[in-house]
Amino acid sequence: MKADKFWSWLVFGLGAAYFLVPLIATFEFSLKMRRGYYSFDAYASVFADPDFQATFLYSSLVGLLAIVVGVLVVVPAVYFVRLRLPHLRPLMEFITLLPLIIPAIVLVYGYIRLYNSSSVIPFTGSALGTDILLTCAYVTLALPYMYRAVDTGMRAIDIKTLTEAAQIMGADTPRIIATVILPNILVAVLSGAFLTFAIVIGEFTITSLLNRPGFGPYLQIVGANRAYEPSALAILSFIITWGAMGMIQLLARFAPRTSARTD
Amino acid sequence: MSDQHFLRVDNLSKSYGANQVVKGVSFGFDKGEFISLLGPSGCGKTTILRMIAGFETPNGGAIHVDGKDITGLRPNERKLGMVFQAYALFPNLTVGDNIAFGLKVAGVPREQRRARVDEMLKLIGLPGYDKRYPYEMSGGQQQRVALARAIAPRPRLLLLDEPLSALDAKIRVSLREQIRAIQRELGITTVFVTHDQEEALSISDRVVVMNAGNIEQLGTPHDIYNRPATRFAATFVGHLNALPHATFGADRAIRPELISLSPRPDTDTTLVGTVSDIGFMGSVLRLKVDVEGTPLSIDTFNANAAPPQRGDQVTLHLAARDVLVLGAA
Predict the structure, then answer these.
(1) A158 in contact with chain B, both atoms CB, cutoff 8 A
(2) Is residue B139 within 8 Å of residue B170, measured between CB atoms?
(3) For A33-86, what is each residue's pLDDT tens digit?
(4) Which of B86, B105, B167 sits opposite A175 (nearest CB)?
């Protein structure tokens, strides 16, 4: 091994250790529920908990809703800005970055002030209303990722010419978005969807302060009251997130192939 | 301009801010004609095509197709077909679905769509390709599919926006011949935009030569080449030699192939010069001859005989009636 490679590997190893050691330690701890030897008892205990199932299901459901709403909002917005209002792109970039800059706690206090049960639009007055508000909050939180995924997808195809080709053949705008644009950026949209899911599934601040039975608050409750289960849950959360990331990688293979040839 | 023209453009103009790119252009063409808009980039030819398609809104003027004013219609209401420089096939659809797109939008039943797709594939010489995807095909094949897609819904007008510019030279020539053959077979009125004068001359019934937002000349390829109306038309289309002032007067010019090294029955003028360069281009030999300090290009067919050498003194023969008088315009 050459010296320069040695140093490269050393830096890589240190970096990897920084991330892996806590993870391995957590995993190792999660296996120690039974005294004296390793077991998956902590995981069994987690899966057997009805609250785990209920909160996980709830967060998954709201996550799916957030994905659907996010796609319906972001795809047409990016399409029209790219096609007709390209000078607004810097503004779009800025607005979609705001959720990363403004803490979730600020967002949720804003919601509570604006939509409390004695306001004009009392979203928080009912469970359903609060669920709608939570979905909107998740869409906002995922906006930076969804926007960037969709924007990158649209950059890869020539939306202007494809739109014109469809228009001249008689297609109207909803049809163009549904049959020409969306299928060609599907991989990008799904990447955005998985990122949204990964964010939503463990979200704590907003879910907790809106007092909804989400997976994030459940993690916190278990973390405060149990010894081994939180480690098991941490590992499970990682697996879910990695699963979502892995799906994005897998999907990238199905991205539309370029057909720009001169022969 | 008479009313019976199938495609009529009246006093069409378009500005982007202070920059007027189309300056009150008018023309009319008959059903079934193949028309080229020819000019350098920025001359307004593409803008005119895009206004006919409905992608740009004119600042003034009107466009009529088949007697109906389409100026205010949206692109999807105009019933036109268009082929783009970048092919613009839908990458997610098969060749068959691409060609059927316009038919599907128009609500044509599945069986009829399939029959029309087969008919189109046969027409463009790609039968059995309906299950392929665009990325599996060469550029020339993709552009033929794009042509089939444009004409499948039987549009009133076919618009071709530099459809050959992205292709290699050989494919370009064969595809343009194919486009012309298909256009003749279907009798579809076609507007072709190009900056390539050879393309425009070889393919068109009539050519509109444009420069800086105005029409310089409108006529058959033969007219435009042999009787250019303006200085721009004369110099943009084909090569042109400016003749020496002393012998011919100001603003006299001649095409390189109308000067010969030996007398022809119609030649009545001779010039003496020195060969300064020889370009061998296969079928054609291009000589540069210096006459009284004026360089002239002469094209002669390649004959299997010894060509003149550099420094040779040659006598040039030309006919006075071939000399073009360039207008002030």
Answers:
(1) yes
(2) no
(3) 888 889 999 999 999 999 999 999 999 999 999 999 999 999 999 999 999 999
(4) B105
Q: Is A95 exposed, middle or buried (0-12, 13-18, 19+ CB in 10 A)?
A: middle
Contacting residues for B143 by C-beta, under 8 A, at least 6 apart: B83, B87, B163, B164, B166, B167, B175
Q: Do B137 and A259 touch (CB under 8 A)?
A: yes
Q: Could you tell me the two tokens for B235?
A: 């110099």
What is the tens place of the pLDDT at every residue in B193-210? 999 999 999 999 999 999
Chain B residue at shortest CA distance from A262: B167
Q: Which residues of B touch A257 (CB under 8 A)?
A: 91, 133, 135
Q: Across residues B306-322, what is the average pLDDT?
A: 89
**pLDDT (average), residues A247-261:** 72
**Pairwise CB contact (< 8 Å): A258 & B167:** no
Residue A17 CB coordination number (10 Å) = 11
Please give the CATH number for the structural domain made up of A64-252: 1.10.3720.10
Calpha distance A162→A170 (Å, rounded): 13
Q: Does A73 touch chain B (CB under 8 A)?
A: no
The structural domains of chain A, with segments of one domain joined by +, span 64-252
Q: What is the DSSP string of B112-158?
A: HHHHHHHHHHHHTT-TT-TT--GGGS-HHHHHHHHHHHHHTT--S-E
Which burial class, exposed, middle or buried, applies to B246 when counting CB atoms under 10 A from its CB (0-12, 13-18, 19+)?
exposed
**B227-268 confidence digits (pLDDT tens):** 998 989 998 998 888 888 888 888 889 999 999 988 889 999
C-alpha closest to that of B1 among B73, B61, B74, B48: B61
| Gap between the Cα atoms of A95 and A47, Å rounded | 40
Distance of CA A202 to the CA centre of its chain: 10
Sign of the CA dihedral with A43 first, then A49, A54, and A55 last: negative
| Strand partners of residue B9 | B27, B63
Q: Taking CA atoms, what residue in A is nearest to B147?
A: A165
What pLDDT digit, counting tens, does each position of B5-35 carry?
A: 999 999 999 999 999 999 999 999 999 999 9
**Using CA atoms, how far apart are residues A188 and B214, in angstroms rounded to an integer?**
45
Q: How far is B100 from chain A (nearest CA, A)?
A: 10
Please give the helix or strand (H or E) that residue A240 lies within, else none.
Answer: helix A229-252
- Measure the CA–CA gap between B237 and B226, rounded to whole angstroms: 10
Rg (CA), chain A: 23
Q: Are strands B241-242 and B34-38 parallel, antiparallel or unpaired?
A: unpaired
Domains of chain B: 7-234 (3.40.50.300), 246-325 (2.40.50.100)
